[in-house]
Amino acid sequence: xxxxxxRAVSVLSIAAFAWLTYATPAHADATxxxxxxxxxxxxxxxxxxxxxxxxxxxxxxxxxxxxxxxNQRLKQAKDDLEPAGQILTNVPDNTNGAPEAKQRxxxxxxxxxxxxxxxxxxxxTTEAAPRDGEVPLGYPHADHFxxxxxxxxxxxxxxxxxxxxxxxxxxxxxxQLTIDHRVAAQAVxxxxxxxxxxxxxxxxxxxxxxxxQGVAAAKQQLADARQALDGSDAYFAPLNQKLAQLVNPxxxxxxxxxxxxxxxxxxxxxxDWMFTSDRxxxxxxxxxxxxxxxxxxxxxxxxxxxxxxxxxxxxxxEAAGNNVIGALQAFDQEIANQTQNLxxxxxxxxxxxxxxxxxxxxxxxxAWFSGGIPQNMGFAEDKLKLLEAIAPAAAAAVRE
Length: 400
Hints:
Blueprint: H1 2-6, H2 30-55, H3 64-89, H4 98-119, H5 141-170, H6 181-206, H7 215-247, H8 255-269, H9 274-277, H10 279-302, H11 304-309, H12 312-362, H13 372-390, H14 392-399
């Protein structure tokens, strides 16, 4: 805790600790009150020391069950310091042992604040003693003030701090349109809710007398939080508007047609049978290959932001695009296979036709010249046309 705790709040204050100055009836037996307060302080100090020992060498608060246990000990300490503060507020300073007891309370309050600030970063605090000209809070103002502080701390100050932090993290992003539109939308929603809660806090503080302890400070904290929210709004509101426009489906009226284009290209280039049953069609696909890739690139560029933002449309188009890429890659691989294998296959067909022609002449089988021979020649010619389309140099070598 050494590094983080030294940065924690060091003023003598406790979140929702306005009870330290509650007005209570005067006690006749000050000695008995001191003894009772001493017992409460002893138990509170024990809990605080336990928490302090557990976080002494940590830079961040523990999570999970360990963190819950330590926070429970902090609550127990707070629950003991509360009545101790009520008692000591009404004990005269000239009572034997009173100065020492009040100093113990002061030290315990300070330690509680430090530990609470470390265990619960961002928690707001309240002064433990009234400023000059302020009077202690009494019932029912203390309860109203405590509730207002709780709302402020958890529903105004915490989200305001979170938005400031998020703003600082996002501001250096070179291309602001790459920021997740969901993050910006959530930030705007959180900002609106924090402002709504700030109005509740404002109304609650307005009902409290201006000269009571902590009210002026609380109003200033609220003003500071609202100023922070205004700063966040100046950044997130226009960013959210830009991103909302960017991902608005209404701005992409050609989406379905473009997606269908990708699906059609995929379907066309996945026809493996064409390399054996429709070589002319395969040759035409090869001739159109570059143009089809250009079409794919144009569509990808058109919807690149949607894919980047992973919207529903972006996800669907990315899937269609990946299918196209797979189909074209498979087609290119088959073209490479055909370029390698066709020359030998053509020569085999021609050799078979020559063999059959020689055998037909020797055996006087003229029917072969209208059957098997032209059939094999047709096989060779069909393959040669495809080879000429995909590898002209290889086809020329075969013709030689």
